[in-house]
Amino acid sequence: MNRRNVLRMMVSGALAGLVSGRELAAQESLQHRVRGMPSPKIKDIQVIATAPARLRLVVVKVLTDQDGLYGYGCATFTQRADLVIPAVEKYLKPFLLGKPADRIDDTWQACYNSSYWRNGPVLNNAISGVDMALWDIKGRQAGLPVYQLLGGKCREAADCYGHASGAEISDVIENARRYMVEGFRHIRVQVGVPGMAGYGARRGQVAVQKLHDDRVFEPAV
């Protein structure tokens, strides 16, 4: 064997050792990243019913088995607030305890399909509270706002609207003008219905005689 062949064998062996070392280091780094923190499990689900300014809100709090890691979600359904609470406590909570908190889409699908009958507003609001809480947990884990996890901002601002209501048309016009002065480009207007409590606008403190004697829907009765 001449000197050239010996050198070739030495160089190839050294390179092989270098490649193997790099591969091992890469594999170790990958395993370390994959291990990381263990997947959090859902330890408890709490429902918070509150009514600031007489607006009935329902908040879901999902706690995990990792200390200090939890999330909040909105399950508000103002028209049937009392029904959302047992939907979370009696149906979703027993179903989700012990399950991974980071499999958000799988959890949503399981909750939505497990009831057999779907698309109801009560269940959908209950699921939305859990879903938001799980995304909140994901954001806390990453140390980022959730919108960054979903791809970042897609706009700098969003249009809002004001609700100009009143017992009489003149009241509605006056309230609408106030919103215009504040700079609102979109205004929802609604005037009270004679004799009815209505939705979003009332006819003052004194009930007005109804216009007919047929049965009507009146939430105040």
Beta-strand fraction estimate: 15-25%
CATH topology of the largest domain: Enolase-like, domain 1
Q: Helical proportion?
A: 40-55%
The level-1 CATH class of the largest domain: Alpha Beta
User: What is the residue-averaged pLDDT?
Assistant: 85
How would you characterize the overall build of this protein?
The protein has 221 residues and is an alpha+beta fold. It folds into 2 domains: 42-149, Enolase-like, domain 1 (2-Layer Sandwich), CATH 3.30.390; 157-221, no CATH class. The chain contains 6 helices and 5 strands; from the N terminus they run αβββααααβαβ. A hairpin with a 5-residue loop joins strand 2 (57-64) and strand 3 (70-74).
Write a brief caption for the model.
The chain has 221 residues and is α+β, with helices and mostly antiparallel strands. The protein has helices at residues 3-35, 81-96, 104-114, 121-142, 146-149, 169-182, and strands at 42-50, 57-64, 70-74, 161-166, 186-191.
